[in-house]
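Lab meeting, action items carried over

1. Structure of the two-component assembly. Owner: GW. Status: complete.
Input record:
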Amino acid sequence: QVQLVQSGAEVKKPGASVKVSCKASGYTFTNHYMHWVRQAPGQGLEWMGIVNPSGGTTYAQKFQGRITMTTDTSTSTFYMELSSLRSEDTAVYYCARDASGVDFDYWGQGSLVTVSP
Amino acid sequence: SYELTQPPSVSVSPGQTARITCSGHALPKQYAFWFQQRPGQAPVLVIYKDTERPSGIPERFSGSSSGTTVTLTISGVQAEDEADYYCQSGDSTGAYRVFGGGTHLTVL
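Predicted assembly:
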């Protein structure tokens, strides 16, 4: 069965960077792109971007310049790194698989990132 | 930037029909998807490509589309359906995804 297992919670100081991982299993890694979505406390879902298994990316304009999405095909893992963190970046970050016309068919469990002095 | 508009809240009694709308100017050209999110959990896809229901999703969930508005309908609402519901689609290019602001469904 498809599983997306994300890294654990992180606490970062303003100005720092965070790198969240998403390990995929149960399907052919190279056949599916991966989205990243975040949700601030008590707020809605926000699309951050998409990465294909070979590393090509499309980022939401809001995050251009401080987001990097990468992949490691040897371990079937996707990564999302966000830099220059501020308090407004406190959120749960999700990876979600793209299924060629069906966006977000499977989701990771989420990774809480807290930005606090 | 492109936006999808949902009502913040909808309330229905058990057994009634709940309808949640989502409006956006690109919806005639881009498919819409609907997600259910219960507190503390990841979202779950309940409708894809406007009207299709994934396996395992109860038949009481259905989707429809008309012009710039898509609608999620839950027939015979049950207490377990109380949750936040989000629509999602792409902008006119299809390259950028966007979520609606979410609708909280309250089962009275």
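2. GW to write a short summary for the group page. Key points so far: The mean pLDDT of chain A is 96. Chain A touches chain B through 22 residues (CB under 8 Å).
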